[in-house]
Amino acid sequence: MYIGDVGERGLHHLVYEVVDNSVDEAMAGRATQIDVTIHSNNSLTVLDNGSGIPVGPHSTVPGMDTLDVVMTKLHAGGKFESNAYKVSGGLHGVGVTCVNALSEWLKVEVYRDGKVWAQRYEKGNPTGIVSAIGETHRRGTKITFRPDFGIFEAKEFSFETLSGRLRELAFLNAGLTITIEDERTGKKHEFLFRDGIREFVRYLNKNRVALLDPPISLYGELETERGVATVDIALQWNDGYDEKVFAFANNIHNHEGGTHLIGFKTALTRTVNNYGTKNNLFKDLKEEVPSGDDMREGLAAVVALRLPGASFEGQTKTKLSNSEAKTMVETMLNDKLGAWLEENPPLAKRICSKVAEAARARIAARKARDTVRRKGALDGASLPGKLADCQSRHPAESELFLVEGDSAGGSAKQGRDRRTQAILPLRGKILNVEKARFDKMLGSAEIATMITALGTGIGPEEFDIEKTRYHKIVIMTDADVDGSHIRTLLLTFFFRQMPSVVEKGYLYIAQPPLYRIQKGKKESYLKDQAAMDEWLLAHGTAKAKLIAGESGDTVGTAIAGEDLKKLAQDALNYRALLEGADRRRDKRIIDGAIQVGDLDVSLLKDHAHLKEQPEKIFHRAQKLYPDLEVKAAKIERDVEHDCDALVFQTHVAGALRETRLDFDYLSGAEWGELSELHANVAEIGVGPYRLETEGGEQEVDDVFEAVDILKKAASAGQTIQRYKGLGEMNPEQLWETTMDPSKRTLLQVRVDDTVEADEIFSILMGDAVDLRREFIEKHALDAQHLDI
């Protein structure tokens, strides 16, 4: 398996392989923009404005088009045949061939030599011949693919994961524009950083006070046997305490570091220590020498290496192994950082003062650290008294619940499985570690108790994830504002002080039920709004009938039971997808076009019959939405696909909006899914319908009205309570709903985009009030289910 695994990492590597080909075009000076789009059916498109994959007969493979060779034969791409790219960033060197082989289907459009060339593949095999389908003035390549989810365990692309990788690529390739849009949610990012990695460190520090600006920028080149290698380093200290150093080789983020990172850390420590000692800037420390951790406290840095013939440990290239990389980085940093410090004495003194302050804090923290140092990892000899430990001494099966308050802690202690579940009640809100130095943090009783219970130790000199006593650490707080705050404080602690706990997948958030439904003595608990909708739909349709086609003596068709439930679910899904489409187009036009039922890609090529469509769609849409105002409806020529496109201009909230129904949209995922859902709903026939429920019968105009009535009927006679506090539950209820491994729901805490997560923690938990206010104002309307 060339992409590493069949989980989330492997799924996203498919995207990286395609994007890296486009980045290679940019590195060779042939592309300036890359656009990535996640579609509603979890297919994905990558479009660039590079030179386009070559087409035409292949020079060494008789009878095959070059495009087919590139897409189906390993090592056939340009980067393997010539020195077109000095340094290639492909993660595994198999590129789109691998992506094609692991896709249910893949479509390619090449814009080259004034023509649009197209091909489609299924399970890696071409379905026809490469052919020109239209004319164009642009150049580039567009690849759309849907992974084979029979192979991959992961079923969805993560917008956050992809955004993190694309942001890094934009930082590493100054002047390259990269966009990503998620049609499922409407989220969109555009990345363009003209100052490259210097802008990267500014971005990392943007919510803090920088000690110096602009960042220190160091660059060097070295001739090697395989070509020119380059080292690009940017670094900038801030007034914070955490270290953020990112290492890259050939555009690949080396999460586990490697030889270039070792060289950076070694040279940084030696160079700053030499300067500070020579200029008596560390004299207050007496015989104590600042450590590497002292040097990197509050440091944001990026080390970007471009090395021909780079070699990595492991399939996913997370650690660089070239020995010469350490020497290159070390030599360059020693020389150029040393010169910078000599040339900038005031700034150099500021840096050394920051380092000295970190060293003094480290010395002061030694005594505090002794109070939380773990002794006897699994014998419980020095465990805190408030911890109700589990009987098991096997971390893999042991769970620690961090519970808000003594009341809920008492219920949890009584309701737990004593063999594998430990309970640690936390009193009040713990210290915000975003604003606290290390020594002050260790003075917090609640944090000290938590560290002792976990058994890992704390701090860069002592923390050891292998000593953790529990492989599931579960945050269990109330579903109110205080509970959310406590949860956020705990997440801040783990993200800043124990990131390995998150990286290993040990941190979870308990999901107490959001709703309790009671009728008489019978109680049901529902975990979230989706479960509530499912419950209402199931109970609403259980004893109902929807009858269509009645007219005079004609007996109608009745739908009930599971068939009615499926019909209702399809109607809800259609409505939800239509709302999503409204972010980019006018949903009223799309709804009208879908319900007319004639429009598809083939009709776009039939100009005579297409002329009837604008009026049909307009009349249908206006009947559905009487307030619809259409300013213009016209047909435009799409020369790239040798067909026409329908273009509507409508008024939405006083603004003019354009909705294009063209080849790309009608052949895309959203239109296909909407058409399928509407066809399912339309099978019942046209309304009005007769709806029979336990409360009687009534006439409804359409299926959507029937669904709303059924959901309302399901809640009749039920007491529906939105659930808030863990303390409201008795031990049996807490076990049954939140702690029983066979029934509970846990959310695993992951960091898909480290840079964005760092930014959010800095904004929400840091000192910058204006940034926090701006964030809250921007996202206030997104908040749901607030208990205030």
Characterization of this structure:
This protein has 788 residues and is of the alpha+beta class. The protein folds into 4 domains: 8-191, Heat Shock Protein 90, CATH 3.30.565.10; 196-370, Ribosomal Protein S5, domain 2, CATH 3.30.230.10; 395-512 and 730-782, Rossmann fold; 544-703, no CATH class. It contains 27 helices and 31 strands. Strands 1, 2, 3, 4, 5, 6, 7, 8 and 9 form a 9-stranded mixed sheet that branches. Strands 10-11-14-12-13 form a 5-stranded mixed sheet, sandwiched between helices. It has a 5-stranded mixed sheet with strand order 18-17-19-20-31, with helices on both faces.
Which descriptors apply to this entry?
39% helix; 27 helices; 788 residues; alpha+beta; Heat Shock Protein 90; five-stranded mixed beta sheet; Ribosomal Protein S5, domain 2; nine-stranded mixed beta sheet; 31 strands; Rossmann fold
- Determine the mean pLDDT: 87
Helix content: 25-40%
Molecular shape: globular
* The first-level CATH class name of the largest domain: Alpha Beta
- Kindly provide the radius of gyration, computed on alpha-carbon positions and rounded to a whole number of angstroms: 31 Å
In total, the number of domains comes to 4
Q: Which regions are unreliable across 5 or more consecutive residues at pLDDT < 50? A: 79-86, 374-381
Q: How is the biggest beta sheet arranged?
A: 9 strands, mixed
Could you tell me the number of beta strands?
A: 31
What's the tally of helices? 27
Strand percentage lies at: 15-25%
Using the 3D structure, state the CATH architecture of the largest domain: 2-Layer Sandwich
- Supply the helix-strand structural class: alpha+beta
CATH topology of the largest domain: Heat Shock Protein 90
CATH superfamily of the largest domain: Histidine kinase-like ATPase, C-terminal domain
Distance between the termini: 51 Å
